User: Fold these one by one.
Assistant:
Number 1:
Amino acid sequence: MKTYLILIMVLVLSSCRGTVEEEAQETSFPQGSQLSLSDEQINLAGIVSGMLEEKVLSDVLSCNGYVRVPPKGQVIVSLPVEAYVREVHFSWGEKITKGKLLAVMEHPDFLKLQQEFIETGNNLVLLKEDLDRQEALAKENAISRKSLMRARTSYENTLASHTSLREQLKLIGLNPAKINVNNMQSRINLYAPISGYISHHEIKIGGLMHEGDPIVELVDIARLNLHLVVYGKDISRVQKGQKVEFSTETQDKIYHGVVHAKGKAIDPGNRSVDVHVHISDPDANLLSGMYVKARVLIGSSKVYAIPETGVVTEGGQSYIFVNEGNKFRKESVNTGLRRDGFVEIHSPEDFLTKNIVWTGAYYLNAELTLEE
């Protein structure tokens, strides 16, 4: 009887131990953290696996800003006098080289200006001769001091007028040295003072442009730069010479630049600091005032990483899948830098010997969600 009872107890204990082992095996992975697929399913899903790779990734600081033109890169062409438009030699958006003829302007006052310049010049000759004669007589006390002062005043007043007229002629583009009674002109040529693109104009043939009216605006895109807004807490990470990548709202092209300077004060409104960036590869598609998204390349580090297609994120937590033959196990990871399609994996020593899914993580995660 005792032998029989002992045998029953042994059988019961063995059964309990088997149950415990089965439960341990079943709970070795949390429910929903592993998935089995056939070879056909793996091929159809395009799942590709590999080991962690060492990559040189750049730490980046994301910020916003806009394109702007510095004062030296933007020129408004105008006249200090009114004039009629007789010829136009440009079109909107055209690339213009420095010295190119932009327009031909005409006005009768141009002739009056030249006439006065010639007349004052001729009078100067006579007044200078008279002044020299008066000074010679004054040395011999042959004339009064008042007569000498009158002669000197007449000469100097006329000289001032002549000089003023000379500078006015230069302002409207005429060469005073070439003006004489046989060479007077009612038209003047306007030339481009810088190379650039025609960004704006208010000119029509036959129209009257008043004094100071903007005739044409030129923008030198080679001088375009960026105005970035960086929050005060990050400004210490930005240094002169760092490279910058940016894109606009209207196109996907990536432009490049270099940090040139940063502001010395924090804007009390949004706690930000201005950063000035020189653009390395400007083109005609960049316009002043255009909004941009930029990344300042802070520095480079050698890290272990996998492609971005191997990382999924749920609730702020990142996950990867470990490939164990036809079984895929989901594991949480801490990620770091994201650059050039790769994601840094922190604590890489836990995964160095494991085969990790590079492509297809989102598919695997979706399948796990369906099973749940």
Number 2:
Amino acid sequence: MLEPLSDRVIIKPTEAPDMTPGGLHVPVGAREKSQRGEVLAVGPGRENDQGVLIPMRLWVGDVVLFGKYSGTELEVDGHPVLVLRESDIIMRVR
């Protein structure tokens, strides 16, 4: 089990679509890197300068959008995951 520290989040990125909205097939080499994913784990939050814990605003299961080049890519049990800071997440998708 992965347990992120501080204000870090572990995300399972969704796969980029293999078809365009017009129905054209996109080859694997030409697909854009996905900027959407599901939160798998969240850290406890970060401490401010006074030592007060600022809790995370994300929950496991949230679907989020993040910057294209954000985070650190890892492979866990053969599956790609991203480790990001909460501040690298652009928005929650509802």
Number 3:
Amino acid sequence: MFILSLTYVKPLGEIDKNLLGHRAYLDKYYNAKKFICSGRKNPRNGGIILCNASDQDEVKNIIKEDPFFINKVAEYEIIEFEPTKFAPGFDQFINLPDSNQQ
């Protein structure tokens, strides 16, 4: 699982120009069951996406489609982690052997 932390590197006016395309990109990967949740940072200087990809190469290929990335208005930090403890129902988003769930 991956946390994608976006940081805006252009003024909000540039971000807003790319927002519709970014939302379509999010929809595509929610429909593909790759994105679990997403939202703006507070203050509005970027965003967070929780991504269920198989590896960093897949994540990098997904990111390459984001208009924020394509138009260089945001930078991505990729943080990989292995969920070992989670709320009931969250297991539907991850593929862990039953012995790892706590």
